[in-house]
Every structure is written in C-alpha cells, then in structure tokens.
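note to self — DONT lose this again. spent like an hour looking for the file last time. sequence + predicted structure for the chain T wanted, 294 res
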Amino acid sequence: MKIKLPFIIIMLLFWVPINAQNTENTYEAEIQAWQAKREASLKSEDGWLNLAGLFRLKEGKNTFGAGKSNDIIFPKGEAFLGNFILENGQVRIEIEPNVLVLNQDKKVDTLLIFNSKAEEPILLQHQSLRWFIIQRGDQYLVRLRDLEHSNVTNFKGIERFPTESNWRIEATLEPAEPDFKIQVADVIGTTSMQASPGAFAFEIQGQTYRLYPTISGDELFFVFGDATNGDSTYGAGRFLYAAKPDANGKTMLDFNKSYNPPCAFTAFATCPLPSKENILPIEIKAGEKNYGNH
C-alpha cells in the first residue's frame, strides 16, 4: 500500500532547499555587484590604477617637468613646467610662461595649491596628467595621475575567492576607553595614533579572534593581515569596511568584501599597514586575491 503525503508537506520538503538556494544566489549577486562597483572605481579618473608618480617636496623651490634636470621628473609633458614652492607648510605653484596648465578649466600662472586648512585638494592638469598635493606626517608630496596610464587599459579585473556566506560573521564590540588609540604605520614610514572604539570579537571554527578598527565616516575601517598574505593574497594585508555597531554592540564582518589596498596596484600609494593586533594567525580565504607584483 502506497502512502500519499499531503500536498502541503511535499511543498515544504522542496521549499526549504529552494529557499536556501535563492538566498545564496541573492548573496552571490550582491557580492558580484559590489566587486563590479569596486573595479569600476579603480579604473575611474579618481581611481588607483592611473597613479604615475609620488614625489616628495623639499623646503623651498622644486623644479618640475619631463626634463631630466628637474628636481621632480614627470613621465611626460613639457620639459619644464615650472616650480613648486614649499614654505611653512604651504605649497605654491609657478607655471612657466607659454605652458598650458589648468585648474577647473582656467589657465594657471601662479597659485597657492595647498595649505593644511583646505578641505579639498586643488587639482591641476597638463595634457593627460593630473596632480595635487597630499600631506603624510611632516612630508608634503605631489601625487601624479596619468589618465592614459597603461595600468588602466590593461586592467582585466581581480581574482577572488569563491563567495561563501559563512565568511559573513557577527562580531561584538569590546569597548575601550574613550581616548583609546591604535598605532598605524604606512608604507612610506610615517606613523600616527588613530582613535579606535575597541576590539571586535568574532568566532571562526569555535576559536575567538579580535580586530581593532578605526572610524572612517559612518563606518568601521579594518586593516588586517592573515595567514594567506604573501601567498594567495597581498603581502601587506587587506582592507575591510563594516557598519558601526548596533545598540547591542553587534556588527557584521563580511570577509567576502575584503579587498586589496592601493599599494597592490601601484608603487605610488601610501597605504596603512596592519597593526600587530590585527594580524590573524589563520587563513581568511575570502575576498580579493593578490594582484600584480607591487
């Protein structure tokens, strides 16, 4: 005698795995959309792929242009473009007559292009080149872009680990004192003390680990290392953003959104390095893999 299952029970038997599969497909689509947006950002005019130089200014006059006799040698453009003048933490530019350098479509002759109180950098352009001043500690640097850089045209995307939802992990804040800071070093040798809310504790395979973020706008920013670094992932660690904790001190660390720092793509970035507290002794096989040879 055959036993007939009620129709509703049959539907429930199929609904559970189908619903789980739909959830996985939705999550995979979310990660793919996030990765596509990130790669588009890398290729944009403000992205990291077009960086063509990073030049430290000395106090006083710094000549610049494509000519080999300049203090700062650009990879293309006029042989002599003019001078950067660094005085007391301010940078002024003087452009050689009959050379076309623009700021917001206006020809520049002489212009104050950096002071520490400015909210936005002043962007200058000559042919396909773009440049502005950045400050790192007590160093003042010219960051140069080339919109025709081969790194942009040759970019074919970033290899990544397969998306697995178990790498989306709940973490709990272990709050620190209000004035708590962590030491952050970068690849050019400068260090700074940056505010941190404390450690975020989470479990992987029954073991508890902790990471310390800094605050970036409305998000938490983690610079972390793990046992894949230097092998399948970038040797100096990866970055990860997460939402600020809720009222219960909880947030989600989605390691599928772990991504390479700018230094994986260019030698002309000034990336922060993981603090010793943020180097995990395990492999985080999620997110972006290594790119290139930087």
